[in-house]
Write a structure and sequence with these properties.
alpha+beta; three-stranded antiparallel sheet; binds zinc ion; 8 strands
Length: about 150
């Protein structure tokens, strides 16, 4: 007969500070102005968003700044119905990848602006390829969550 062991449920916290550096500082300053900034790679011409200091494909510094569109196309999504440490908002919510107009990489954010309390109803509304637009908070502080979510356009 196998022995059963008791378990202890606990939580590990790892507080830290991250310096934004020049590129992310400018990106987050844009958030406060309702602007989504990306940077363009001079070698492959891709527009990267959020702005990055270098192209992870070409390994060259990016130097040109581009303002991304406020609308985009949904490329992938995940329905989150459980609570976890560090979650961006109360569940249920939808974590989503979208391709903003004028950019060449997917942008991670959330979808909202409609009732998503029932998953089966939600999956009838949310479809890859749907058009979405940014909904900004009235009070912004230079944070990624200055965009409340992207709603169906
Ligand atoms: Zn590149």
């Amino acid at each position: 007969m196998a022995k059963e062991y008791k378990t202890l449920r606990t939580e590990i916290r790892l507080p830290y500070e991250l310096s934004y550096g020049a590129t992310w500082t400018r990106f987050f300053e844009g958030m406060a102005e309702k602007k989504i900034y990306g940077t363009k790679c001079g070698q492959c011409n891709r527009v990267l968003v959020p702005a990055r200091s270098f192209c992870p494909r070409c390994f060259v510094d990016t130097t040109d700044w581009v303002e991304a569109g406020q609308q985009g196309t949904l490329t992938a999504w995940s329905y989150v119905s459980y609570r976890y440490f560090g979650m961006p908002t109360e569940p249920p919510f939808i974590s989503a990848l979208l391709r903003l107009e004028g950019t060449d990489v997917d942008f991670l954010h959330m979808i909202g602006g409609f009732d998503m309390s029932d998953f089966e109803q939600t999956r009838k509304v949310v479809k890859n390829g749907m058009k979405l637009r940014a909904v900004w908070k009235d009070e912004r502080q230079g944070h990624i969550l200055d965009i409340k979510y992207f709603e169906p356009a």
